[in-house]
Write a structure and sequence with these properties.
It is a single chain. This protein has 16 helices and 26 strands. Helix content is 31%, strand content 22%. It has a 6-stranded mixed β-sheet with strand order 6-5-4-7-8-9, with helices on one face. Helix 12 (453-465) links the parallel strand 21 (442-448) and strand 22. The chain is α/β, with parallel strands linked by helices and 731 residues long.
């Protein structure tokens, strides 16, 4: 064959050579075009995917780049063209992109601000022009508000919009009117799914009553956020009583002007032997800025004597020696106290007295039975006092339950009427008990269902009887009579949390500490359980799987644990006893080598702080639920370490943990009386009683007791924790 080609004429050989070269060049050009097209499509597609524009379809036709697809908005289309123009020449781009049609205008968010004070009511906001059938119109809302302030018209700054009302709008609006009627000074923000209330109450008791009423009236499907504050109580007189006797050291009543003073007084009491929790009210009305200094000096004096009492009524201090105190020890304690007592305070020192006969057999007794019946017996000065005592008793108790069987004695000691009236006022604080009035002693004994009764009785007797007068208070607290005693124990709170978590789980946006929206109902259920557990000590612990760096995992787990704590706090849960701690990838409960194991390790645990194991060594039950990348994954139950109650989280992308790394920002237990002793009968020889002592005759039986008064609590209504910075996310 080659020989035949050589025989061809030269001009034919040249033509064949050119033809063959042309075919080869065409093949090379075609192959080069295919390579260029492929690389162009790959580069452009990768760039668009990086920016989230994966709705663009890229094709190449030679040097031309064809773009097709539907852009969500015109801005997205323009952004995609600019991105491609940065990779290839704009003259090579062929724009075949479409833009999705614009959506209809969404309905506005309806909301109303209701403001009420002494000047009237203001209504501000946007409401539906045509509410649902039977719903409140704008005019109806104004009319309902006007009914709350007879003779005045509310300021109407409402606007309407012609959109349908949300399903729960009318229920939320009517609930807002209910709250506005209840709260005289308030700001109420009403939305279809949420009502926020900020108000001021006259007392702590009113605050608790308002909150309980509003919680019961809250409509289904509407979140309620309340911030009702109460003023600091005014304590008159400013009273404190410290006792040390055979029953131990204790406070019968305790008041302080500042939180710092309260802590100093309690520390002095603890040094003197006071055990258990002590209710010490912080209030206004302190007679001196050096109140805590005077109280500490008095407590030291009682401790130095070994037995006795110190009673403050404003700046009047009565120091009474107890049984067995020697005159030398008394003189030494009084001398030290006079030197340490601030100038504003006066001191009445009652020395130890030997057992002698009483000033006389004169007595007045009152007995309060469990059914409310009151019997008054003994001596009164005259008919005028008898009428006053009868009227006062019927006012304090019940007119039909008072039986008066007293006799008149004009030779009674001075101040007898005052002592009788003070004793009856103190007896009215009990559910059952007795009163004994003698010339040298006023004694109140009984049972109560209020932990503040002892403090209130002490305050009444101290202020009514005056400085230097002796009285005795023996009050036993009965939990069955206390409506607040049914609060759950920490273990019951933990069991309640476990029950809620058994039916759902907490999820997070992948790679962040933001709680997913579909977890809001679960957080709400947890808040409902924990609102009945004020101050429960719990740790909210966060854990991740082993993917990502140690620092990133620790920061992400910390942020998520804090997000749960802040979410509970935002739902009015008292989180003062809770802490959020992130443990990162520590303490795995499953194999990090499998996806199922990693899901189980991504979790949040609730654990009781300081919980002790049961007698058989087993820990408090706990609940564990595995985290998942998407909401809706089934929860699993596993046995973690002792006492945790675990709520699952959903990270889904452990590799983003580094991006989420953020800098961490950081009743009185006094034994009560064993029983209610009956008041001594008239004529009983009181010589066995040491005159001038305000101490128990014999140690009471073991049982819960208290030393509060009836002044409203001044505990802060808002427990706040500064939130940490949220982790930043990439992409």
């Amino acid at each position: 064959m080659p020989k035949r080609l050589l025989r061809l004429p030269k001009h034919m050989l040249a033509a064949l050579s050119f033809a063959l070269a042309a075919v080869v060049m065409l093949g090379i050009a075609f192959l080069a075009a295919l390579i260029i097209e492929s690389r162009t499509v790959t580069a452009v597609t990768a760039r668009l995917d990086e920016t989230g524009a994966n709705w663009v379809t890229v094709e190449a036709d030679g040097l031309q780049v064809l773009l097709s697809g539907t852009a969500p908005t015109e801005a997205d289309r323009f952004r995609a063209l600019n991105l491609v123009g940065g990779l290839v020449d704009s003259s090579r781009i062929r724009d075949m992109l479409d833009v999705a049609p614009s959506e209809g205008i969404t309905a506005p968010r309806f909301s109303v601000e209701m403001l009420r004070n002494d000047d009237g009511i203001q209504l501000i906001g946007l409401v539906p022009e045509t509410p649902a059938e039977g719903g409140l119109t704008a005019a109806g809302l104004v009319e309902g508000a006007a009914a709350l302030i007879p003779g005045g018209d509310p300021a109407d700054m409402l606007q309407t919009a012609g959109y349908p009302a949300p399903p729960t709008w009318d229920a939320a609006l009517r609930f807002g009117l209910t709250a506005l009627e209840l709260l005289q000074r308030s700001k109420i923000s009403v939305a279809a799914d949420r009502v926020e209330i900020t108000a001021i109450s006259d007392s702590e008791a009113d605050r608790k009553r308002f909150e309980a009423t509003l919680r019961r009236a809250r409509p289904e499907g509407v979140d309620l956020v309340m911030d009702i504050s109460a003023p600091r109580p005014v304590i008159t007189p400013f009273t404190l009583r410290f006792i040390s006797d055979a029953a131990g050291a204790r406070f019968d009543a305790c008041s302080a002007d500042t939180e710092k003073a309260r802590m100093a007084i309690l520390a002095a009491g603890a040094e003197a032997g006071v055990e258990g929790a002590v209710a010490c009210t912080v209030g206004m009305g302190a007679p001196s800025p050096r109140w805590a200094e005077a109280v500490r000096a008095a407590i030291r004096a009682v401790t130095a004597m070994g037995a006795g009492s110190a009673t403050f009524s404003d700046t009047d201090l009565t120091l009474t020696a107890g049984d067995g105190v020697t005159q030398a020890a008394f003189d030494r304690a009084v001398g030290d106290l006079r030197a340490a007592l601030p100038d504003a305070f006066s001191l009445e020192a009652v020395p130890p007295r030997p057992d002698t006969a009483s000033q006389g057999p004169a007595e007045f007794t009152a007995t309060l039975a469990a059914d409310g019946r009151v019997e008054l017996r003994g001596r009164l000065v005259d008919e005028a006092q008898q009428a006053v005592v009868d009227a006062f008793a019927r006012a304090e108790f019940s007119s039909e339950a008072v039986y008066v069987a007293t006799r008149l004695d004009p030779e009674l000691p001075d101040g007898w009427p005052i002592r009788v009236m003070a004793g009856l006022e103190a007896l009215a604080q009990l559910a059952e008990g007795s009163l004994l009035v003698r010339a040298d002693l006023v004694e109140v004994k009984g049972v109560t269902g209020a932990q503040s009764a002892r403090g209130k009785i002490t305050q009444i007797l101290s202020s009514r009887l005056g400085q230097g007068q002796t009285f005795r208070v023996e009050v036993r607290y009965d939990e069955k009579l206390d409506p607040e005693a049914a609060l759950p124990t920490p273990e019951e709170c933990a069991a309640g949390v476990m029950g809620v978590l058994a039916g759902g789980k907490i999820t997070f946006t992948p790679g962040s500490a933001e709680i997913a929206g579909d977890s809001a109902p679960l957080i709400g259920k947890l808040a409902e359980v924990l609102q009945d557990c004020p101050g429960v000590r719990m740790e909210i612990a966060g854990f991740t799987d082993s993917q990502g760096s140690d620092a990133g995992n620790q920061a992400l787990s910390q942020a998520r644990a804090e997000a749960v704590l802040i979410a509970l706090q935002g739902r009015r849960v008292d989180v003062s006893g809770m802490v959020a701690v992130g443990y990162g990838e520590a303490d795995p409960i499953a194999d990090n080598g499998t996806e199922e194991g990693r899901e189980a390790n991504r979790r949040i645990e609730f654990s009781l702080i300081g919980a002790e194991p049961a007698d058989d060594g087993e820990a408090v039950p706990n609940a564990t639920a595995a985290a998942a990348t998407e909401p809706g994954d089934a929860a699993t139950v596993a046995p973690p370490p002792a006492n945790p109650v675990i709520a699952e989280t959903a990270t889904g992308d452990a590799a983003t943990a580094d991006a989420a790394a953020v800098a961490a920002t950081g009743d009185e237990s006094e034994p009560g009386a064993a029983a209610i002793p009956e008041a001594p009968a008239a004529g009983t020889d009181p010589g066995a009683m040491a005159a001038g002592e305000a101490t128990a005759a014999e140690p009471p039986a073991a049982g819960p007791d208290f030393s509060n008064d009836l002044s409203p609590s001044v505990a802060p209504t808002e427990k706040t924790i500064r939130p940490r910075a949220r982790p930043e996310t990439r992409g």
